[in-house]
């Protein structure tokens, strides 16, 4: 453990924090202490209240009356101005950057550098560059944000957050910052966060990824159903005890055992090109789970979209059951039996204003109820087992989807496609933002679909997931197939090694 200073008052201390949404209690009497200079991880199942807590700290939600807070021993009011007064800085998942502006301009967006009232463009770039350099971030301050890799943008966002405003005792709050980062890029962020910590600043880090918690964290606070169940140093915890604290029960194994039982080729692609993919041929057999991994920019992220038709196909043929699937036509892909669960849940996968029930029944509307007329009751009956199986919380299928936590929305998307009757599944980051308990339910569902003869393509940036779940993992490098790693040889290290061997993508070299 690094710089935790026990005799200083907490950098931030909140007590008695509760929040009720329309009669539903999201937080109950929560207490959180952040010691100066520590990396404090906030963990909990989907819907346990992490985002609600962060949003209260940010002043976005008003808590129920009765809460108290202090910053380095001085009382502050929990409310819209608390973040500003306590030096809290937030890195949200969308990073809040403007793509068309330069790094330097983005760094000064929304505020000026402390002590600098006016700078010429050149000085401004030079000054921003000096700040980035001082953190060891090798990004060109004159470059346009849109040209940078996501990893580089994340690093800029961190440095920017710390350089806003005067507070020298800043507290950085990161909400699942690695959700869309490739494995190797995560290490760049961790190096920066350790640098931030070495400067004595405090970090609150929200994640579902336990490896990250052990790699980075000093202490952890765990929420369950809106209450704090433990705040502990990580030094005294192991993986299993942490899972038990999160779930309130033991989890036998995260990844289920499975036998390989692949049949005939169901999904085939030949000389596929589009996005970052230059030339890729692949085949997924009935009952097979094929992984697709690669660094950002390798093309891995384009594969499910090209197969489904949600990104333009520049060349190549896609076949399902031997029949051609036309390019750029998602509706035709669905008719051919393909289900696609995209990673960009908010933008592509969910209808926030619709109910859970409507979101699940969306792709298979016909044939429910007599005369193909859908009664709401019949639909509700049909959906209930899916809500239960994937542990969607709250259980009420009539809830508006947008009011569910992020991970619970993801469970709804998976439930939708598992129910849809498709026999080819393209799953992009299916467990991103999903807690350990629900992950296992999703893995079980994937195996069940495979055992039922479906062909499954699993694109993931979680190499451990790829190594544990797939019969074969395709590693993309620079738009082509770099390696095809059979299950028996697939380990996280091997997949990472294959991803970065020979060439790293130009973009990632930026940092
Ligand atoms: N605006 C809202 N209206 C109604 N209920 C809400 C709202 N925001 C959150 N909730 C409810 O509060 C509870 C806590 O949700 P929250 O988003 O804080 O969970 P979380 O721990 O961040 O989950 P995840 O890991 O899935 O992001 C959930 O039951 C959720 O449905």
Automatic annotation (TrEMBL):
InterPro entries: AAA+_ATPase, ABC_carbohydrate_import_ATPase, ABC_transporter-like_ATP-bd, ABC_transporter-like_CS, P-loop_NTPase
ABC transporter domain ranges (all copies): 12-250, 249-503
GO molecular function annotations of the record: ATP binding; ATP hydrolysis activity
Coiled coil: none
Repeat in keyword set: yes
Swiss-Prot/TrEMBL keywords: ATP-binding, Nucleotide-binding, Repeat, Transport
Superkingdom as given in the UniProt entry: Bacteria
One Pfam entry name: ABC_tran
PANTHER family for this protein: CARBOHYDRATE TRANSPORT ATP-BINDING PROTEIN MG119-RELATED, GALACTOFURANOSE TRANSPORTER ATP-BINDING PROTEIN YTFR
Name of the protein in its database record: Ribose transport system ATP-binding protein
Source organism per UniProt: Trujillonella endophytica
Lineage: Bacteria, Bacillati, Actinomycetota, Actinomycetes, Geodermatophilales
């Amino acid at each position: 453990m690094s710089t935790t200073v026990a005799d200083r008052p907490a950098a931030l201390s909140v007590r008695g924090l509760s929040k009720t949404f329309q009669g539903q209690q999201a937080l109950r009497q929560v207490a959180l202490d952040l010691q100066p200079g520590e990396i404090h991880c906030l963990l909990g199942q989907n819907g346990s209240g992490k985002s609600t807590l962060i949003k209260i700290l940010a002043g976005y939600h008003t808590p129920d009356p009765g809460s108290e807070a202090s910053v380095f021993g001085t009382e502050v009011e929990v409310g819209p101005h608390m973040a500003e007064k306590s030096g809290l800085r937030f890195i949200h998942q969308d990073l809040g950057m403007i793509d068309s502006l330069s790094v330097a301009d983005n760094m000064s967006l929304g505020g000026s550098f402390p002590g600098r009232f006016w700078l010429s463009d050149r000085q401004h770039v030079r000054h921003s560059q000096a700040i980035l350099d001082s953190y060891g971030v090798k990004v060109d301050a004159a470059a346009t944000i849109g040209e940078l890799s996501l990893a580089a943008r994340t690093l800029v966002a961190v440095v920017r957050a710390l350089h806003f405003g005067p507070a020298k005792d800043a507290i950085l709050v990161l909400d699942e910052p690695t959700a869309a980062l490739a494995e190797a890029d995560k290490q760049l962020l961790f190096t920066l966060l350790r640098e931030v910590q070495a400067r004595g600043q405090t970090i609150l880090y929200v994640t579902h990824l336990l490896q990250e918690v052990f790699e980075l964290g000093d202490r952890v606070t765990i929420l369950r159903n809106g209450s704090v169940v433990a705040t502990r140093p990580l030094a005294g915890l192991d993986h299993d005890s942490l899972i038990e604290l999160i779930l309130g029960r033991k989890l036998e194994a995260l990844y289920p055992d499975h036998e390989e039982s692949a049949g005939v080729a169901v999904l085939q692609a030949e000389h596929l090109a589009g996005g970052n993919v230059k030339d890729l041929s692949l085949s997924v057999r009935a009952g097979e789970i094929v992984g697709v991994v690669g660094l950002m920019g390798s093309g891995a992220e384009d594969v499910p979209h090209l197969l489904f038709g949600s990104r333009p196909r520049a060349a190549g043929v896609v076949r399902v059951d031997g029949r051609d699937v036309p390019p750029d036509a998602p509706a035709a892909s669905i008719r051919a039996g393909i289900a696609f669960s995209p990673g960009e849940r908010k933008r592509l996968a969910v209808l926030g204003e619709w109910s859970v029930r409507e979101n699940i029944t969306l792709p298979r509307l016909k044939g429910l109820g007599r005369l193909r007329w859908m009664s709401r009751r019949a639909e509700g009956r049909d959906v209930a087992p899916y809500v239960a199986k994937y542990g969607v919380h709250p259980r009420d299928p009539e809830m508006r989807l947008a009011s569910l936590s992020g991970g619970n929305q993801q469970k709804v998307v998976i439930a939708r496609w598992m129910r849809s009757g498709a026999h080819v599944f393209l799953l992009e980051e299916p467990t991103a933002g999903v807690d350990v308990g629900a992950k296992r339910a999703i893995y079980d569902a994937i195996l069940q679909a495979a055992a039922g003869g479906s062909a499954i393509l699993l694109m993931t940036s979680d190499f451990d997931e790829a190594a544990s779940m797939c019969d074969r993992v395709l590693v993309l490098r620079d738009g082509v197939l770099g390696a095809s790693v059979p299950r028996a040889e697939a380990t996280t290290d091997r997949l990472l090694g294959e991803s970065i061997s020979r060439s790293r993508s130009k973009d990632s070299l930026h940092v």
